[in-house]
From TrEMBL:
InterPro entries: DNA-bd_dom_put_sf (IPR009061), MerR-type_HTH_dom (IPR000551), MerR_fam (IPR047057), Tscrpt_reg_MerR_DNA-bd (IPR015358)
Keywords for the protein's UniProt record, in alphabetical order: Coiled coil, DNA-binding, Transcription, Transcription regulation
Lineage: Bacteria, Bacillati, Bacillota, Bacilli, Bacillales
Coiled-coil annotated residue ranges, if any: 88-115
Listed GO MF terms: DNA binding; DNA-binding transcription factor activity
Protein name as catalogued: MerR family transcriptional regulator
Keyword field contains Hydrolase: no
Cross-referenced PROSITE patterns: HTH_MERR_1, HTH_MERR_2
Superkingdom field: Bacteria
């Protein structure tokens, strides 16, 4: 199938499909006119790539194990667990940072509200 048909079947833009090709995630054959030709298997590959992108993984991370998970069950691909652990650590770090930012904002709001409260009680604005 041509790139437009693959795009229509998967809902992934042609630009993204070309990017996946450039990153080595998809390997279409090239016709004499330079057009990309994808196997029917490419649709499943694109859906798998999308699944991993939705988990927050980069195309580089996906490339490190995609070939294995396309041939085997994910559980048989030893390359997946370290990537998942790394991503989980990144997420936990982001959560800690956001929690600190949230706490700082809550404290600033409390401080402003408390500072404004005496003025309201005395009739000032």
């Amino acid at each position: 199938m041509k790139i437009g048909e693959l795009s229509a079947r998967t809902g992934v833009s042609i630009r993204s499909l070309r990017y996946y090709d450039k990153q080595g995630l998809l390997t279409p054959t090239r016709l004499e006119n330079g057009y990309r030709e994808y196997s029917p298997f490419a649709e499943q590959q694109v859906r798998t790539i999308q699944l991993y992108l939705n988990l927050g993984l980069s195309t580089e991370q996906i490339a490190s194990f995609l070939h294995c998970v396309m041939k085997n069950k994910e559980a048989f691909c030893k390359e997946v667990v370290p990537v998942y652990r790394q991503k989980l650590a990144e997420i936990e770090e982001q959560i800690a940072l956001l929690t600190a930012v949230k706490s700082n904002l809550e404290e600033r709001i409390r401080s402003i509200v408390e500072e404004d409260s005496p003025n309201q009680r005395l009739g000032g604005e």
